[in-house]
Amino acid sequence: MVETKEFDTFVASLAADAASPPGDPLPGDAGATGRTGTQSIERVVGMLRVVASRGRRGMRIGDVASVSGLPMSTCFRMLQRLELEGLVDRDPLTRKYHLGPLLYELGLLAQPRYRLSEICDDALAEIAEQTQDTVYLSERRGAESICTSRALGDYPIKALTLDVGIRRPMGIGAGGLAILCALPPAEAEEIIEANSARYRKFAAFDLGFLRAAVAEGRANGYSFLDSAATPGTAAVGVAFPPDNPMAAVSVAAISSRMGATRRVEVAKAIQQQVAVICTLLQARGRAAVPPTDGKTSRKLRSRP
User: Which DSSP letter does residue 21 get?
Assistant: First the structure.
């Protein structure tokens, strides 16, 4: 367990490192200034999010610098410090950075409070059996959505568009889009604006396209995307619960399996199981699922 004093010292050292311009000594070195601040801490958390964005594939330092927008030297210094503390791990063969063992250990302690995926397991399996396609659970994390569970159907050609643990700007993918559709219009627009620069990395996702998809999803009661984030695949998503959309269930398949008639059938199958999930949530109490952070969309503008 990390002692409070030791942890505070570690965070301060990370913050000082993040605040130091290239060429400044690392915290603890002679002449280090020890500067701290919430912006610097957000920068460190942003670095962890960048490394996590590729899931289990990992990232080389050049990719980290490109995605984060930080200088290569700054990324190197921050990653060195994170690796020293076990928050990232560098593969000696591929030279790729991955999330480190300390995050796994801390996650084991946090897991009991964040078990929405366990509540949804039976529903996801039932949808996968009915549709024979791939079913995803996406949860809201501020202005992002993260895949927290997946169930595979029996259809031989599978749409494996996401790994568990992958997070993306909300709206990239039918699950995140479904959450956007279910949010109040003003809040959804705030998230779209906050993510606007990040959407440009996905060819089909200009703001006009996304806003049109949100309007269509609101009218239909479910989201739908075809060959948007992943060419050749289509997906349908439904968000829940109605009064506070914090997650969504989506079904992905090859585009030829998602014609107009079948997408309505798939949406109904999801809606039936979402109703079951909502009943379970009411029975177990909202404490069983993680709260959303409405402030994250505003913070995203300053993240790397």
Answer: P
